[in-house]
Amino acid sequence: MIEFSLQKKLHAVTGNMLFDISFNIKQGSFIGIYGASGVGKTSLLRMLAGFLAPEKGFIKVSGNDWYNSTKKINLAPQKRSIGFVFQDYALFPNMTVRENLAYSLDKTTNPAIIGELLSFVELDQLKDRKIQTLSGGQKQRVALARALVRKPDLLLLDEPLSALDSELREKLQQLILQMHSQFNLTTILVSHDISEMTRLADEIIFLKDGLVEKSGSPAAMFTVQKSKDIMRLRGIVMEKPDQNSICLLVGKEMVEFELSENEIMHLQKGDNVLVSIQAFKTCIDKIK
Amino acid sequence: MIEFEPLWLTLKLAFVTTLILLFISVPLAWWLAYKKNNFKTVIEAVVSMPLVLPPSVIGFYLLLAFSPSNAFGKMLEDYFDIRLAFSFPGLVIASVIYSLPFMVHPVHSGFVSLSPNLREASYSLGKTKWQTLFHVLLPNAKSSLLSGIVLTFAHTIGEFGVVLMIGGNIPGQTKVASIAIYDEVETMNYDAANTYAFILFLSAFIILLTLYLVNRRFDKIKFYD
Known about the structure:
The complex is a heterodimer of chains A (about 290) and B (about 220). Chain A is α+β, with helices and mostly antiparallel strands and about 290 residues long. Chain A has two domains: about 1-220, Rossmann fold (3-Layer(aba) Sandwich); about 230-285, CATH 2.40.50. In chain A, about 25% of the residues lie in helices and about 35% in strands. In chain A, the strands form three sheets. In chain A, strands 7-8-9-3-10-11 form a six-stranded mixed beta sheet, sandwiched between helices. In chain A, strands 2-1-4-5-6 form a five-stranded antiparallel beta sheet, covered by helices on one side. In chain A, strands 14-13-12-15-16 form a five-stranded antiparallel beta sheet. The two termini of chain A are about 35 Å apart. In chain B, helix 1 (about 5-35) packs parallel to helix 5 and helix 1 packs antiparallel against helix 8. The radius of gyration of chain B is 20 Å and the shape is globular. In chain B, about 80% of the residues lie in helices and about 0% in strands. The interface of A and B includes residues 83 and 92 of A.
């Protein structure tokens, strides 16, 4: 169980903001933190890691105090059992792939884990390569493997896949899920990609202006409530070929729908829409 | 012909100064690069002072400080039996102060230009600040470190004003090559002055050329795309 309640004044782009977030996370769960830029997503992750000191509050991980302002406890990042994955990978350029992993070994860790992790992320072949010769996807695999060498209690992922193209992303999402279950991790992912969140997280925390706006399952968080719908899809209006049809981009597919004129007259190119299909009837609602 | 003692003394001074500055500047540059402290700006200004002050000013104040007729110099003499004015150790201390920015500035900018995530990644992997400094920060800032070493060395070789004020002109102790040139010119011995001058000129060129060649090699090994 990870419990935290953190308060701090932050200087955001939009001015000063009071960051005040409390939450309890069950052991083994996969939490997604979602919200616009500048709402404090990364600050939350950095406070949990110990890179950024809160002003008040506590962090308690399986009964141990990592931070407690009243008891004046603030564990250094080195003392917290975490793995942190950065958007820019933060791999050490002076080391090879294997050395990047081996660097995090300490006396208590069995060195065999290096080989295990390298084959887990399918980088056996590249283990003696210098970091600068790797592609973006390979770099992030190294970074993920490196974060697991010390078998952390908590894996923190700060927009790890946002620099990658969509095909690579899907592959790595799969890898992150496998890691999460195989290594019994509690994982917190910051992202602003809804599909990524839906695919990976069991629970989403929605942040707004430094506060928790709402939280719940991805399905509950990312769908607009409407009863009796059988299937819902998100899409973007691409084109209206004539008065009775509309072309939407749903995922990677272009889909054309036939609808009555008054249903699509208020939709414009570029609108984000929610397509819900009830028994034999399609309905398209603008959501943004 | 010329004496080789001043040249040897110059090399010794430059070597000792560079070595001492390396030990002082790496922690100092680290502190300036990563610590948040109101006092930091003051330290930054103090470190940069030798860049703008005339060497004779620094030399003058150090001479006052080292003089046995003043408190600090008297204390050194009474308790440690050390006299710094007009001695080689005094020269080293003066050179360390005078060349401080030439080592601190390159190392500092080397640290600042590294992604802060590298440092935090290392901390998250359980590594201490020292381990991070030696295994991550310094290896990835090695071209800046090399610049600092070479500039300090070359700058110490070229020192004149401070050396003259604090060291004077004692053969075998404080008479370095730049002083020897001045000395030879004073006595109208232009041939000897020319030899010293040419040796200094050539060594400065070779040192800087080597620096740029090595740094170009480092640049070719691109760190991040």
